[in-house]
């Protein structure tokens, strides 16, 4: 498989990258880990004239502590997130989910920011990022703006990032002490999830005081199962209570139908997986 | 002359040798076709039809021809007769309807992916870029897509033929004199016996070999040399010669290292023919390597049948007759084996059982989809699936253990050789012994007890145990039998042994390996038989100029046919060496014995090794007058019979009734493949075969949309399992040596694939049968399993007992289609 011809730039700073992007406009594509872009190019589903590679920009990679947030650089590899102790302590849900993302090779190459900017509703990072209420740091020629998680995912493969902008980092509110679990349903291990559920739960004395639930592949964007979250608040962390709340998981969702399952089946799966995810996150 | 020494007889046969070919194959640092680069070589890219069925109105190549470094752009009309044709080697009936198959059609395309033009450029990238500039105007035609609909001729895949029905092939035991009248048996069973009627779907599969197909053609020498990633270099050479008019002696075909085939490279492909024609026309070497997408879309597919089965039994569960009615999807053309694939299953539906009456009917049907042909097992997995599903259904009907019901019907070990109701003579086997061993390995009784506990408790996760006792005919094939079946060639194999002056041994085989481990296994056979070190044996194959005769590799034939040819050639070498040894030792030939690679004079310490004799024959200074100075020998072996490996495969699965997810808990199998040359290679074949068969049961399916586009056209949608999805298999063997070859071996290349699919599906159905389910269509996706359970819960499915009889107004059974098809 041979991509159509393109030109290539590898800037070493975000400003250089933005300048290149401004110059080439929608003829350009940003290359992060390349795990989604390269197959698209090789299958000739897209043929940009210019590929701007962010891999030579050191400032975009790494995890740092910023008070009540962790700041994860957009070019941080999935494998970094999988092993980072700060992520494990303050944003365990990301770590739980990233272990299920594709396979080892892809996790070593693919990036956190690249996966989120790609905005595949079947991607494993969107639902946890949404559930944790991340803020997306987006740089443009006029400076940097922060976009809330709820406003970031716009549609299928579409985000709040403008054509002349670059996602540089993701600010993750610390969820220290929260239980977390990512329940992913697949037919074969290397597949995108048919449905997956990301759950972070705060349990105090056997009561769920707060819960955050994200759904993967249940609509054109990652979704937040707010009905479930509302129903869980103040409930005992028991099988019955969680089952009742989880029954509302597909409310407002618009799941796709494909070879792996139709919308009805996905809606059913969402309720089962939500129950399992919340119970596991609650330590039940 | 060597002094006396105890012959070191460490037998090679039976040793767990690591494969000598693996270093180069696994690292990829070897001669794959795509690695071959010749001076001045040009590259091809194919322009393919996006439509399943369309008239080609016009092809405008102007823009593509003007593109950078494009040498030419050619259509079917440009190549004319020089492109030859793709052949069907097996017209299964005399009146088979066979559409002409041009590599590049000129007026009409019959499936999505068919080649309509070829771009020739200086680089592969430039060829690919220019291919997008070829402007083809199509006029879409209605496409025959669904197999059952196509069988009604509602829409014609090839309008000129007037029908989609290619051939109807029938075997009837009463007519053949091998058994009774099946309709009488069924009629009788309807009155007081048991009749089981089911319809099963063999979904369409894609062989999905690891190395995409690739071809290089060099026309610059006296012979035109073709390198191709093919299983069948010899057959390909014949087909090219027969359809292009180029003398066979002017064509050299080389299959260098080939990265897997599974039957998928048992083909004479349009791309090979196009490359051959283009190279001749332009006079320069050309290369074409397909993309994975092209491979999935256009390399031949496998299976794709509807199976309508009627099994009659007496009330004690003894089968009295089996009637099989198949619809088989050929795709757009009749491929090289084509309709022969389902016919290979005709002799196997009766499997290991003593059925008194049997009838097999098969209608092959043309559609506007990718052509189908051999895929690992070819006809036999379909047959095994059908009968093994039915035997489980019979057991369920009787309320008995499925192994017990099989035991009541199978051929007892004391009854071999046994002539079956399909007319084959099984040489050897012991079904009881293999079954006992498999049951021990699985822990059958314990798992049955656990299954009962879980059922009684109404557990969310239910346990099912699937049984598959299989046999297959392998070692294709006795040439006379192939002649009777109207197959276009014989089934012999050729081998030669060349004794080099340095004592090394070159073995040439007509079997063309594509990952099976021939080099290792054949070296072991020769090392033992000839008494030379394993490392001194070099196996040559896959080049028609070196291996001038051969019928290649498929149908589990290489060892049992090719290996036997090798044994005969080695024996000839020893026979030829004997007079030379006697001459040099100044002894009587009758006093010589050949042990461990050395002729010794009985009762003395005098002797001479085969290596010394090879040197003496080479020098030719001193040899008997009536002898030619050479030890080299060759042999062509035509098998006297097929051989019949068998085995018992048991699979335990867990089914999550809440999601429909199936996970395999344990898999145990005991195969009887006769004597084993290399246990490690056998284990590899069995493991790989199992995964491939399990994948049919659970994961793989080629799906087309309503317009005839392959939806599962990438590995994102065509689900191949990886190691992460499998488990450690419990594999063991019983040994009933084959009586039809010297080595006592039986084929193993397809066994795992044939046996495992029904074992898994039987297990899945067994796990949920108590919920009122008697079938789930393959692949048993979580959604299908879940919907079957939902349907059963709401009274949607009918439990086993009262299945309706087949009739015209009631085609099919809800049991297969209702399960979330």
UniProtKB/TrEMBL annotation, chain A:
Kindly indicate whether the keyword Oxidoreductase belongs to this entry.
yes
- SUPFAM superfamilies named in the record: CO dehydrogenase flavoprotein C-terminal domain-like (SSF55447), FAD-binding/transporter-associated domain-like (SSF56176)
Keywords (A to Z) from UniProt: FAD, Flavoprotein, Oxidoreductase
Provide a Gene Ontology MF annotation, just one.
FAD binding
For this protein, the record's Pfam families field holds: CO_deh_flav_C, FAD_binding_5
Where are the bilayer-spanning segments? none
FAD-binding PCMH-type domain mapped to chain residues: 1-177
The protein's name in its UniProt record: Unannotated protein
Native organism is: freshwater metagenome
TrEMBL record, chain B:
Q: Which Pfam families match?
A: Ald_Xan_dh_C, MoCoBD_1, MoCoBD_2
List the SMART domains. Ald_Xan_dh_C
Please give the coiled-coil regions recorded for this protein. none
Is Oxidoreductase a UniProt keyword of this protein? Answer: yes
Composition bias, Polar residues: 810-821
Region Disordered: start-end pairs: 1-21, 790-821
Q: Which InterPro entries match?
A: Ald_Oxase/Xan_DH_a/b, Ald_Oxase/Xan_DH_a/b_sf, Ald_Oxase/xanthine_DH-like, AldOxase/xan_DH_MoCoBD1, AldOxase/xan_DH_MoCoBD2, AldOxase/xan_DH_Mopterin-bd_sf
Could you tell me what this protein is called? Unannotated protein
Q: Which organism is it from?
A: freshwater metagenome
Q: What residue spans carry the Basic and acidic residues bias annotation?
A: 8-21
Membrane spanning stretches: none
Molecular functions (GO terms): iron ion binding; oxidoreductase activity
- Aldehyde oxidase/xanthine dehydrogenase a/b hammerhead domain: which residues? 27-142
Q: Which UniProt keywords apply?
A: Molybdenum, Oxidoreductase
Q: Does the keyword Oxidoreductase apply?
A: yes
